[in-house]
Specification:
The protein is 25% helix and 37% strand. With 142 residues, the chain is of the alpha/beta class. It has a single domain (23-140), classed as Beta Barrel (OB fold (Dihydrolipoamide Acetyltransferase, E2P)). A five-stranded mixed beta barrel has the order 2-3-4-6-5. Strand 2 and strand 3 (80-86) form a beta hairpin. The radius of gyration is 18 Å and the shape is globular.
C-alpha cells in the first residue's frame, strides 16, 4: 500500500514537472502586438496603484516603451535576468518598481548598467502579478 502511494505520488510529481515550461525567450527585435505606448515608470506605477483594472485595459498585452532608472539587475529562477526599473521620483527606500524580464541571454549592454542609470526599455506588459508589475520580452533601447 505504501509503495503504491509513493509510486503514484512520484508519477504525479513527474507529470506536474513535465507540464511546466519556462517563460518565452525575448526575440532579437520587438514583436508588436497592438499599438506601442510610451510611458515613464512613475506614471505606469501610479496607474496600476490607483486602478489596476483600468491600467490593464490601457497597457496589458501591449508593447510599451518605459523610461526609468535602474534599481538592479538580478538573475531569477525560470526568467533568466530581470531588470528592476524604478521611478525617477523613487527615494532610497522605495520598494515599488517595474520588473522587466530580459531572458536568459540579455543584451551585452545590460552588463554595463549601474544603479541609478536612466534607461529606456521596450517590452510587453503582463500587468500586475501577485502585486508585482511585470513586463516580458524586454530589450534595452538605444
Amino acid at each position: 500500500m505504501a509503495r503504491a502511494i509513493l509510486w503514484s505520488s512520484a508519477t504525479f510529481g513527474l507529470l506536474v514537472l513535465a507540464a511546466c515550461k519556462p517563460p518565452d525567450q525575448p526575440k532579437a527585435g520587438p514583436d508588436p502586438v497592438g499599438p506601442q505606448v510610451s510611458v515613464k515608470a512613475d506614471d505606469l506605477l501610479k496607474d496600476y496603484q490607483s486602478n489596476a483594472l483600468a491600467a490593464d485595459g490601457k497597457y496589458k498585452g501591449k508593447r510599451i516603451v518605459i523610461t526609468g532608472k535602474v534599481g538592479s539587475v538580478q538573475k531569477a529562477p525560470l526568467y533568466g535576468y530581470v531588470l528592476q526599473l524604478m521611478p525617477f521620483e523613487a527615494n532610497e527606500l522605495s520598494l515599488t518598481g517595474v520588473t522587466c524580464i530580459l531572458g536568459h541571454e540579455p543584451q551585452p549592454e545590460v552588463a554595463q548598467l549601474k544603479e541609478g542609470d536612466s534607461v529606456k526599455v521596450i517590452g510587453t506588459c503582463d500587468g500586475q502579478v501577485v502585486g508585482q508589475l511585470k513586463i516580458a520580452k524586454c530589450l534595452l533601447m538605444k
